[in-house]
TrEMBL record:
GO terms for molecular function: FMN binding; oxidoreductase activity, acting on the CH-CH group of donors, NAD or NADP as acceptor. The lineage of its organism: Bacteria, Pseudomonadati, Pseudomonadota, Betaproteobacteria, Burkholderiales. It comes from the Bacteria. This is Alkene reductase. Coiled coil: none annotated.
Length: 353
């Protein structure tokens, strides 16, 4: 495990260790998407890791899916996030903003403009979503016109610019977990007949063009992408061609020289091995539910440069110190994951307490 605590270069940055905090939605932003008063404390508590990836942050009004998620496209958003980045940098960590467009995983009651969600195609996910009125079925989204796809790319590009203005060390595109980018990958969500649908190359086009645009804006070595090959959340089915789509996508992204690719591993070890061969840059690997005794194994074997952790980082502000001391971990309080105040957010005890 000792290799976990060594520094590593990722893109243009050197991380103080090979541990990352995975992005986790906490739904504690203000109604306008500005990070809440406790957000800086929350992230700075966990800044003993080398890299923090923020919760999914919408690049536009259309991009919001859930209640009280943060944005990064207004002056107020930038000012709020600047407090966060300053606090994290004071502890020595690097912080990448995860840019997340929810696509069809949205409800009009949760967005500033209260408009119908947008997606590759007008296909509902067949799921519910929590709103201030309680759980409601997610309505059928509106299919993006071709020019609107390009405008969405421009929205991401602008949000990436604003993230850097807010002090972010980089941005991570959220291409996982059934949100907009993965919706383009999946035939179950994408039945388009233009350049963004049909073939593997077309279904990967949105992600590739998006990565190219953001790389042009902030520098390829300050951007990354998160992927969850094979994930089947909320009606997503990538079909038999799914693994080949990711092989094609990774090979194309490799040409751009991004800071890292962040893989949420779903169990296809053969595909993961191929991704490692195709991807020449830094690989950040997240294995949901990884047992404590396997922490550090992917870095030790050379499969990944960095390992990312969700619940353990959420529940243990001194995650790195506990690993070094082989100390017990706090258990995460699932009931306080989304929304609320300090409880289950900034009140998890550290070892020193």
């Amino acid at each position: 495990m000792s290799k976990l605590f060594e520094s590593v270069t990722v893109g243009r940055h050197t991380l103080q260790n090979r541990l990352a905090m995975a992005p986790m939605t906490r739904s504690r932003a203000q109604a306008d998407g500005t990070p809440g008063d406790m957000t800086a404390e929350y992230y700075s508590q966990r800044a003993s890791v080398g890299l923090i990836v923020t919760e999914g942050t919408q690049p536009s009004e259309d991009g919001q899916g859930y209640l009280f998620t943060p944005g990064i496209y207004t002056d107020a958003h930038v000012a709020g996030w600047k407090k966060v980045t300053d606090a994290v940098h004071a502890k020595g960590a690097r912080i990448f903003f995860q840019l997340m467009h929810a696509g069809r995983m949205s409800h009009p009651d949760n967005t500033p403009h209260h408009r119908q969600g947008v997606a590759p195609s007008a296909i509902a996910p067949g799921a519910g979503m929590f709103t201030l009125k309680g759980m409601q079925d997610i309505p059928v989204p509106r299919a993006l016109a071709t020019d609107e796809v390009r405008q969405t790319i421009a929205d991401f590009r602008f949000a990436a610019k604003r993230a850097i203005e807010a002090g972010a060390d980089g941005v991570e595109l959220h291409g996982a977990n059934a949100y907009l980018i993965q919706q383009f990958f999946a035939p179950s969500a994408n039945t388009r007949t233009d350049a963004y649908g049909g073939s593997i190359e077309n279904r990967a086009r949105f992600a590739i063009e998006l990565a190219q645009a953001v790389a042009e804006e902030v520098g390829a070595d300050r951007m990354a992408i998160r992927l969850s090959p094979g994930a089947t959340l909320w009606g997503i089915d990538e079909g038999e061609e799914g693994p080949d789509l990711y092989r094609y996508l990774i090979a194309e992204l490799d040409k751009l020289g991004l800071a890292y690719v962040h893989i949420m591993h779903q169990g296809d070890d053969a595909l993961l091995a191929d991704i490692r061969k195709l991807w020449r840059g830094a690989l950040v690997l997240n294995r949901p539910g990884r047992p404590r005794e396997q922490v550090g194994s992917d870095v030790a074997s050379g499969l990944a440069e960095v390992e990312s952790y969700g619940q353990m980082a959420l529940a243990n502000p001194d995650f790195v110190e506990r690993l070094k001391a082989n100390a017990p971990m706090n258990e995460a309080d699932r009931g306080s994951y989304f929304g609320g105040g300090a409880q289950g957010y900034i009140d998890y005890p550290a070892l020193a307490a």
